[in-house]
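Entry 12.
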Amino acid sequence: TAMAARPGGNPPQLQTIGLATSADGHKFDTPRRILSQSEKYPPNRGFVGYSTPAAFVLNGRVHLFHDVAAFVAGANPEWMQVALQHAVSEDGETNFVEDDKPLLVREDFHFTSGEILGPAALVDGDRVRIWFSGHVTYGELLPFVIRGYKGNEFGIGHAYVNLETFLADQDE
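Predicted 3D structure (tokens):
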């Protein structure tokens, strides 16, 4: 992911997902942007773009999972990761098609009320599995500290979908 200042400054950040390739795993070509925020997540609603990409290849198509970042002035923190999204491309470099709606949003679980982030996905037999992390809002962290850093304020979540259903959704 790459972050820059947004022209016009509203919201202040502009985040995109890039790609650099290598034939030997040591020397990489010049990074290039492959996915920018779409009209599904407009800047005028506070969305700044995408972060933490993770991809796999299935049936010759590249499936890219990432989170969606937003900026809310005066919030604590102001920059936060608020949703998990999926996009697919025939070559992994151009023409990514995003799902109509996010896979998960931070309001889906107590432990992601602050942020939901860092998707990691893989195909496991007849399922597509996704792991992600999250934490509660900063205001909810004091009990965590008082209890000696024990509790459910941070977590790693797991979700899955049947592979057949996942593939059918991609063909619609």
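Annotation: The chain has two helices and eleven strands. The chain has a mean pLDDT of 91.
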